[in-house]
Write a structure and sequence with these properties.
With 334 residues, this protein is an alpha/beta fold. It folds into three domains: 44 residues, lambda repressor-like DNA-binding domains (434 Repressor (Amino-terminal Domain)); 126 residues, Response regulator (Rossmann fold, 3-Layer(aba) Sandwich); 135 residues, Rossmann fold (3-Layer(aba) Sandwich). 45% of the residues lie in helices and 16% in strands. It contains 13 helices and twelve strands. Strands 2-1-3-4-5-11 form a six-stranded parallel sheet. Strands 7-6-8-9-10-12 form a six-stranded mixed sheet, sandwiched between helices. Strand 8, helix 12 and strand 9 form a beta-alpha-beta unit. Helix 6 packs parallel to helix 13. It starts with a helix and ends in a 10-residue tail after the last strand. Keywords: DNA-binding, Transcription, Transcription regulation. One of its GO terms (molecular function) is DNA-binding transcription factor activity.
């Protein structure tokens, strides 16, 4: 097996210099780095991660615990975390559809230096047991009431509130609210903002205007939006749609078109997520931009600081959203 000594001998450099370059620590010139990395590649050198772990006490592996929703809808969360970890020579492992008790087990096994945990509901005693285990944690969203854990979250309540308020300011009082999976915390928060804004403006919410989504298939969100508008055109009066996901809004736009109506002439539509197609469909969809990538980056940075610098100060950050007003909104038709 090729060792650092072999590379040092071939490059005519000290073992200490080669070690610094391969471990990305200390000072060295770019020219020397290129030379060492070229020789290491030619020799087929593979770092002995087990030995490094024994020496540093680190596995240099982070786990990110998430559900199918984030994997399908927001892969940018994973890529933003990966980019931060890669610059610090850490790897990332995805853990799907786990729970807090399972997270406790993973930490106790020592496979990970820390965990990033997204939007997981707390089982009885699960969070308490998890925080008492050795290991570093950062929660990315979720209903986390404890103040002694790191949390980076997005103000979805503000998003629901501001989107609804914007529609009300345009004269809309009957707003069809189409929600995603009701078990997801962010859906609950958007709905809470919607209801709060209605109440603040003296508008009584109407149960028929709240439509629960179907998440049973990859295209279920578009179908939810399409069916919600199609059916309720005939059963309920409304002049605007607030969807908790851009894909739901896409389905709503298609239904409006099939009815021979226009957006925003006959109906205003707002989505959530500001996905890339929203900029290019016709009409261009107004949407609430969610800082998913920023949440991933900040969470990863907090976790790495905890691990590598022994930073024990609890961080709790709430990221703000932004309304992106495009072509799918107008005042309520007379």
């Amino acid at each position: 097996m090729v060792t650092i000594k072999d590379i040092a001998r071939s490059s005519r450099l000290s073992i200490a210099t080669v070690s610094r370059i391969l471990n990305k620590k200390g000072n060295y010139s770019k020219e020397t780095e290129k030379k060492v990395l070229r020789i290491a590649k030619d020799f087929g050198y593979i770092a002995n991660l087990t030995a490094r772990s024994l020496k540093t006490g680190l596995t240099r592996t982070i786990g990110i615990v998430l559900n199918d929703f984030y994997l399908q809808q927001y892969p940018s969360l994973i890529s933003s975390v990966f980019d931060v970890l890669r610059t610090h020579d850490f790897s990332l492992e995805i853990i799907l559809n786990s729970n807090l008790n399972e997270c406790s087990r993973l930490l106790s096994e020592g496979r990970f230096d820390g965990l990033l945990i997204t939007d997981i509901n707390d089982e009885p005693g699960g969070l308490r047991e998890l925080t008492e285990r050795a290991g570093d944690l950062v929660f990315l969203g979720g209903d986390i009431e404890r103040e002694d854990v790191n949390l980076v979250e997005i103000d979805y309540f503000q998003g629901g509130y501001l989107a609804t308020k914007h529609l009300i300011n345009l004269g809309h009082t009957d707003i069809l609210f189409i929600e995603d999976d009701t078990n997801l915390f962010f859906t609950q928060e958007i709905k809470r903002g919607y209801l709060f804004s209605l109440d603040e403006n003296g508008i009584q919410y109407k149960e028929p205007l709240i439509i629960r989504g179907d998440t049973s298939s990859p295209t279920a969100r578009e179908i939810t939006g399409f069916n919600a508008v199609k059916r309720n055109f005939r059963e309920t009066s409304f002049s605007a749609v607030l969807a908790t996901d851009d894909k739901i809004a896409y389905g709503a736009l298609k239904a409006v078109s099939e009815e021979g109506l226009k957006v925003p002439g006959n109906l205003s539509v707002i989505g959530f997520g500001n996905m890339s197609p929203s900029e290019y469909i016709v009409p261009r969809l107004s949407s609430v931009e969610i800082p998913i990538s920023q949440m991933g980056e900040l969470g990863a940075e907090i976790l790495l600081n905890n691990i590598t610098r022994k930073d024990s100060i609890i961080k709790r950050v709430k990221l703000k959203i932004q309304m992106i007003d495009r072509e799918s909104l107008s005042s309520k038709p007379a």
